[in-house]
Design the sequence.
């Protein structure tokens, strides 16, 4: 099926604008627009260069290597892959229930990852747009500009991220490519010195996370119509939720709500996710388009990530974050619940939840237990799902009798959001670009919409917001007619 | 220096008659980098990592017998440069992906590389196609990581009395083979407790189900360099050598 603006009727008559590569997002991607002579938008697409080699590379490798190996997929969210794969491996070794020490240690690792990832995204990648404006002076619209104009904000971003990385280092053994989670459990507990070390700065981290929520709340609510309406559309949402409906980033059943907030499915055992989610392939994109099976290809697409989790859960099991969640949902009579830019707000509420959650875990003596691994009857298929910083992450493996991986299927958060990001691009193109002369500031509006989702455009490549953006205007025959370089002086690279 | 003694880098090292330079050095706690040498097996002399200068001439210290008054150079920049190049070649001739190898931190090849300050493989990777044999219920053979030291071959033959492993082909074609009708490990009499399973200096022969049990920071070579802790690997290696 197609959506309005997804495919133009007669593309040969149109000029093509490419935003490539996208900046301040993780990985490589590009947006192409087809415009007519009056600059009316006829087609808008987000393309993603996905890392395809992984499923092949992993074939034949022993399953126990997978949780460590998959961290190579992404330099930004390795811990999410480590944990999702480990959960799948738990099932292969028959560990249906981990020991309390193992589960809590993994949860601690995961919250460290949420904290560091959300801090990085908000302070480094998103705050330049939010603090300076989407079409502010491009030379300043970056993390260096933020550091100059708001030194405290930038410094806190760095330290929050660093704290999250320390949690990861201590639980996984290393900041990246750690080995903490193993099939059936973990390989270490938390010792008293490590606990004291992590406790030392924690009150500060919680306070700074609260400040971050307040900062985004202030920015957002100062211009409610603009922020609510930016690229606006309605969609379903999917996430894990705990049995009692609580936000749970590490484990739960799949829950989906439609665009009116009605439950589509709930308490779904993710071991059978394929009964609920299918993936559509489109000719123009490498990335698949997942949809909820019962609603079909046209209606079935959905969003994942912080906003989905905020909408889906019944409560957040840490008090400060839960109070913020209520305020968020009530804002403007629920006006932010479907808003693209509300992802930023939801993300900071989750960062606060992560900081609070870490505090709760550190008070739990189970973390220092010595019972680390469980085993049971072996199985040949394992599915592991977690709520990664960017949304639901699905790892699915089959092994043979000799313990070798024969098949792997991954649905990463960014893939779930593929349709939604394309929708956001089209809406923004219509709202802000249609019929106007394109400027860097206007094109940045498109990127702002994509950035709200914090996409990890390729879990194999990443760069931190330093990528130059090139926009070319090409006519229908592919001739370049104009060129705009992202470094701000509008010089033409051609 | 008098009697049965040699000098290694200017330090007198006593030896028993019949000992090699390597054996004398080990007994005295002097580290000479090595990979195919193991104190419980006859010298093999294939990796050449243990090359020292004996009275000014190169020789493999694991095969050269100690003689009274020998002047041995070991820990010199020149010799270590050569050893580094050999180590780099070992890395590119196989497929060694340390970041997700379960022997990382307990691997002698990696530890030697660290000892020699090897910071990159330097040479172009061969990426040779190598086979994984997972057919044995308790032991995995990953030829991607095999450095052809033949320790498993020797251990299986001399200690286990089974002759499970062998080397076929020469030069760059050389590969570790399994002596069974199918050529697969599952069809041999190999037991997980065999000496052949304990001696592999790298991650080519490993016990299934034990991966990553030791956290980063607690692995053998997290504690101290190989020159200090030797080659003992918890639960599966041999003593300080
Ligand atoms: S499998 Fe291990 S012990 Fe055997 S030859 Fe290869 S590296 Fe040496
Ligand atoms: S240790 Fe002497 S040649 Fe290998
Ligand atoms: Ni990623």
Sequence:
């Amino acid at each position: 099926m197609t959506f309005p603006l997804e495919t133009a009727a007669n593309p040969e008559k149109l000029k093509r604008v490419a935003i490539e590569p996208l900046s301040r997002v993780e990985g490589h991607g590009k947006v192409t627009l087809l415009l007519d002579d009056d600059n009316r938008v006829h087609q808008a697409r987000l393309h993603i260069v996905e890392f395809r080699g992984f499923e092949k590379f992993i074939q034949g490798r022993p399953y126990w290597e997978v949780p460590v190996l998959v961290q190579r997929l992404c330099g930004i969210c390795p811990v999410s892959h480590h944990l999702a794969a480990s959960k799948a491996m738990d099932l292969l070794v028959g560990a249906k229930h981990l020991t309390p020490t193992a589960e809590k240690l993994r949860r601690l690792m995961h919250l460290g990852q949420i904290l560091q990832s959300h801090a990085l995204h908000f302070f480094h990648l998103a705050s330049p747009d939010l603090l300076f404006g989407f079409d502010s002076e491009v030379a300043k619209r970056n993390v260096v500009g933020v550091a100059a104009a708001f030194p405290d904000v930038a410094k806190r971003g760095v330290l929050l991220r660093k704290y999250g990385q320390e949690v990861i280092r201590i639980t996984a053994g290393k900041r990246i490519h750690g080995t903490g989670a193993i099939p059936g459990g973990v390989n270490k507990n938390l010792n008293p010195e490590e606990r004291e070390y992590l406790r030392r700065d924690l009150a500060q981290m919680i306070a700074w996370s609260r400040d971050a929520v307040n900062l985004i709340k202030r920015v957002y609510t100062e211009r409610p119509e603009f922020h609510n309406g930016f690229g606006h559309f309605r969609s379903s949402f999917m996430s894990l939720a705990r049995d009692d409906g609580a936000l749970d980033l590490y484990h739960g059943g799949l829950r989906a709500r439609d665009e009116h907030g009605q439950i589509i499915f709930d308490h779904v055992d993710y071991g059978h996710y394929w009964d609920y989610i299918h993936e559509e392939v489109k000719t123009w994109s490498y990335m698949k388009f997942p949809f909820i099976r019962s609603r079909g290809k046209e209606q079935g697409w959905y969003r994942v990530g912080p906003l989905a989790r905020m909408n889906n859960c019944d409560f957040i099991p840490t008090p400060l974050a839960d109070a913020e969640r209520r305020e968020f949902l009530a804002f403007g009579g629920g006006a932010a619940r479907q808003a693209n830019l509300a992802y930023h707000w939801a993300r900071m509420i989750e960062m606060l939840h992560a900081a609070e959650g870490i505090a709760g875990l550190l008070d739990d003596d189970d973390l220092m237990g010595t019972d680390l691994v469980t085993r049971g009857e072996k199985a040949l298929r394992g599915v592991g799902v977690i709520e990664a910083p960017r949304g639901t992450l699905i790892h699915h493996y089959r092994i043979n009798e000799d313990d070798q991986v024969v098949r792997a299927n991954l649905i990463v958060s960014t893939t779930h959001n593929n349709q939604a990001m394309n929708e956001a691009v089209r809406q923004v193109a219509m709202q802000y670009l249609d019929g106007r002369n394109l400027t860097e500031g206007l094109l940045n509006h498109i990127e702002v919409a994509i950035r709200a989702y914090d996409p990890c455009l390729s879990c194999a490549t990443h760069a931190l917001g330093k990528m130059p953006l090139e926009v070319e205007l090409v006519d229908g025959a592919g001739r370049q007619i104009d060129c705009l370089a992202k470094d701000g002086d509008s010089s033409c690279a051609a | 220096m008098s009697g049965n003694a040699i000098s290694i880098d200017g330090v007198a090292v006593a030896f028993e008659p019949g000992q090699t330079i390597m054996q004398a050095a080990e007994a005295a706690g002097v580290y000479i980098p090595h990979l195919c040498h193991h104190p419980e097996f006859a010298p093999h002399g294939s990796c050449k990592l243990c090359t020292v200068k004996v009275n000014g001439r190169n020789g493999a210290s694991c095969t050269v017998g100690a003689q009274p008054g020998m002047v041995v150079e070991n820990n010199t920049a020149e010799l270590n440069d050569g050893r580094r190049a050999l180590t780099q070649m070992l890395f590119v001739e196989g497929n060694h992906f340390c970041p997700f190898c379960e022997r990382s931190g307990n691997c002698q090849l990696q530890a030697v590389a660290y000892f020699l300050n090897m910071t990159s493989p330097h040479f172009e990777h061969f990426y040779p196609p190598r086979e994984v044999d997972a057919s044995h219920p308790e032991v995995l053979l990953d030829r991607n990581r095999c450095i052809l030291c033949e320790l498993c071959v020797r251990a299986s033959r001399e200690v286990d009395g089974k002759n499970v492993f062998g080397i076929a082909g020469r030069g760059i074609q050389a590969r570790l083979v399994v002596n069974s009708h199918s050529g697969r490990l599952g069809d041999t009499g190999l037991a997980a407790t065999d000496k052949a399973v304990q001696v592999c200096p790298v991650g080519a022969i490993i016990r299934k189900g034990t991966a990553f049990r030791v956290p980063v920071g607690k692995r053998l070579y997290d504690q101290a360099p190989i020159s200090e802790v030797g080659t003992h690997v918890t639960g599966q290696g041999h003593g300080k050598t």
In short: DSSP finds 16 helices and 16 strands in chain A. Residues A 74, 76-77, 456, 459 surround nickel (II) ion (ligand 3) (CB under 6 Å). Residues 54-416 of chain A form a domain with the Cytochrome-c3 Hydrogenase; chain B fold (CATH 1.10.645.10).
